[in-house]
Specification:
Layout (H helix, E strand, L loop, with lengths): L2 E5 L1 E6 L12 H10 L2 E6 L10 H14 L3 E4 L1 E2 L5 H4 L9 E4 L12 H10 L6 E4 L2 H14 L3 E3 L5 H12 L4 E5 L1 H5 L5 H4 L13 H9 L6 E2 L8 H4 L14 H10 L5 H15 L9 E11 L18 E11 L2 E5 L2 E2 L16
Parallel strand pairs: 2-3, 3-4, 5-6, 6-7, 7-8, 8-9, 9-10
Antiparallel strand pairs: 1-11, 11-12, 12-13, 13-14
The protein binds (4S)-2,6-dioxohexahydropyrimidine-4-carboxylic acid and zinc ion.
Length: 357
């Protein structure tokens, strides 16, 4: 056994489903899954039911989280057509502003570019904006980042054409950063048959081997890895209208550690993309006395029945991996050890509200 100590990991893109769909996940089960995966801080997306698009909705979700979260967290607010004037006041308490510009799960989608511009004008310049944009929509939002000279973080980049466009834009000094998800690094369309076509539904979709290789070849352009943890139950995934999304919190680190074993990237590359860059880009505070211990040599098999996520399945079922989280220490207390989550619901802190009350 060889134990390595790393900082508590940060996932800037998770869906915790509460309020509204707690049969898929809630703040308790989702943050338990986070700790089991080595994450001590998660940023939660706003496409809940109701979506987090107002002061009242933000206050409701922060109240729920304060009672149930086991790890630290912050909550995004969602950009809508009707709430442009309301959101700036919420910025200090929010993880950032999420703009859905392409097909996704839920009603939050902005097609009219006038709305994009209004949000860019109103949302504070120094607070994060995250955009879900694919293909040519991605090109459009990159143009807007340049025109407004303001930073935009691009969620779940998945295609060769996208990562190459981002490389060019970064070379020209456009203020953008980006994240890539484990399912686009470790699965392709070819895997859909084995996983099941319906279960394989995810946005952005699984892509070609060429797309996947291009992501690996352009690792230096990728600022963050983020799970886009998007739990749906198996009965939902196996239905005639499967909702898109995969759980990811508990599988990303072993997948990446296995890739480290294979020489595809270094451990430092992992820490940069799951800790250093997320912390810088999203202006996140230090978590004092917080670290994780991993056994980098342990071989094991991913099995849904061992996972904490309520959705109770994984597209990586049966995959052999090398490297396992042994212990997570969050603010001085052991929050997870040897398969058991020890932090209690309510232990997690709202990192944007520390000092505000
Ligand atoms: O696959 C996805 N699932 N993509 C999204 O954009 C949303 C997410 C969800 O919330 O289920
Ligand atoms: Zn998402």
């Amino acid at each position: 056994m060889s134990t390595v100590k790393l900082p508590g990991l940060i996932d800037v893109h998770v869906h915790l489903r509460e309020p509204g769909a707690t049969h898929k996940e809630d703040w308790d089960s989702g943050t338990a899954a986070a700790l089991a995966g080595g994450f001590t801080l998660v940023l939660a997306m706003p496409n809940t039911q109701p979506p987090i698009t107002s002061k009242a909705a933000l206050e409701e979700v922060l109240q729920l989280a304060s009672q149930k979260a086991r790890c630290d967290y912050a909550q995004y607010v969602g950009a809508g057509a009707e709430n442009v004037g309301d959101l700036a006041a919420l910025a200090p308490r929010a993880a950032g502003l999420k703009m859905y510009l392409d097909q996704t799960y839920g009603p939050l989608r902005l097609d009219d570019m006038r709305h994009w511009m209004s949000h860019f004008e109103k949302w504070p310049q120094n607070r994060p904006i995250v955009a879900h944009a694919e293909g040519r929509t991605l090109a459009a939002i990159i143009l807007m980042a340049e025109l407004f000279k303001r930073h935009v973080h691009l969620a779940h980049v998945s295609k060769a054409e996208e990562i190459l466009l981002i490389r060019k834009a970064k070379e020209k000094g456009v203020p953008i950063t980006c994240e890539v998800c484990p399912h686009h690094l470790f699965l392709t369309r070819e895997d859909a048959r084995a996983i099941g076509e319906r279960r394989s539904e995810v946005r952005p979709p699984l892509n070609s081997l060429e797309d996947q290789q291009c992501l690996w070849e352009n690792l230096d352009v990728i600022d963050c890895f983020a799970t886009d943890h998007a739990p749906h139950t198996l009965s939902e995934k196996d239905s005639a209208t499967p909702p898109p999304g995969f759980p990811g919190l508990e599988t990303i680190l072993p997948l990446l550690l296995t890739a480290v074993h294979q020489g595809k990237l270094s451990l430092d590359d992992v820490v940069t993309r799951l800790y250093r860059r997320p912390k810088e880009i999203f202006d996140l505070p230090d978590q004092k006395d917080t670290w994780i211990e991993i056994d980098v040599d342990q071989e094991w098999m991913i099995q849904a029945r061992e996972l904490y996520s309520r959705c109770a399945w994984t597209p990586f079922e049966g995959r052999r991996v090398i490297g396992r989280v042994q212990r997570v220490v969050l603010r001085g207390n052991t929050a997870y050890e040897s398969g058991r989550v020890l932090a209690w619901p309510g232990y997690g802190q709202s990192i944007r509200e520390i000092g505000i009350s």
